[in-house]
Amino acid sequence: MTSYTPPSEKDINQFIDMVSFNADGLASAIAQQHDTKKILMQAWVNRDSLYKTLATGQVCYFSRSRQKLWTKGETSGQTQELIEARLDCDGDSLLLLVHQNGVACHTGRTTCFFNALTPEGIIHTEEPLISPEKLYGHHPHPK
Fold first, then answer.
1. pLDDT > 90? residue 140
2. What domains can be seen in the chain, in order of their start residue?
3. To which protein family does this belong (predicted)?
4. Which end of the chain, N or C, is less surrounded by CB atoms within 10 Å?
5. Helix (H, G, I), strand (E, B) or coil at 9
6. Is 89 annotated as a binding residue?
7. Is position 11 annotated in a ligand binding site?
8. Is 92 annotated as a binding residue?
9. Using one digit for the tens of pLDDT, what is the confidence trace for 52-89?
């Protein structure tokens, strides 16, 4: 695995200044496994979480439900190590190439994108590798 070397603070700030954050101060971030190119998840970043990600190499998002920063894996141990950050042409969406340690989805799957609409109906493209209860001690999103 390639190890992340943080850029200079000047370059980090210049990159963040290129981001077009929405009215809530957020930008969409897609996490993709760097070697397999599998799309893992989508989450939100604000200036602070993006700075923390770029400065440390540990991916940090902004939780809209909790209204605070959360470093991926802080409760589950399923961390994401940044390999490279990319910004789209409009400046409003990031692609984070990461090394995922464990599963990415709170459901215990490797990806959050497991519901597929097919001619046969909606299918799950993969089953959980670990239960949410084992990851968090409880189900994180009761319905």
1. no
2. 9-106 (3.10.20.810)
3. Belongs to the PRA-CH family.
4. C
5. helix
6. yes
7. no
8. yes
9. 999 999 999 999 999 999 999 998 899 999 999 999 99
